[in-house]
Amino acid sequence: MKRSEPVTLTNMCMIKKKDKILVLDRNDPVWPGLTFPGGHVESHESFHDSVVREIKEETGLLIKNPHLVGVKQFFDKNDERYLVFFYVST
User: What residue segments make up the domains of the chain, in order of their start?
Assistant: First the structure.
């Protein structure tokens, strides 16, 4: 049995400030609507460094201590595993 497989690694982060939560309003026809900022984990990048980088790229904010709060997995249209690591930060 094979022990490795192709996988896409991504992250999303809920950024909270008091009673407010930051969301993005995507205009992408494939995936429109409200979502949390995030993106793909690059080759040889840690999950932590990836979410910090993605938040900086998408929002201009520098987060320091994102907490992993969940993981979602599904299979994409090519039947390859797709993982999303969900974080929370203030």
Answer: 22-77+84-89
Question: What pLDDT, on a 0 to 100 scale, did the predictor assign at position 28?
Answer: 86
Whole-angstrom distance, CA of residue 36 vs CA of residue 46: 20
**Number of residues assigned to the chain:** 90
Q: How far apart are the first and last CA of the chain?
A: 43
Which class is 22-77+84-89 in CATH?
alpha beta
* Cβ proximity of 89 and 55 under 8 Å: yes
Residue 83 tokens, joined: 């993982």
Per the listing, tokens 């900086």 go with 56
Q: How far apart are CA 43 and CA 48, in angstroms?
A: 13
DSSP assigned state of 87: E
What pTM was estimated for this model as a whole? 0.90
Contact, 86 vs 15, CB < 8 A? no
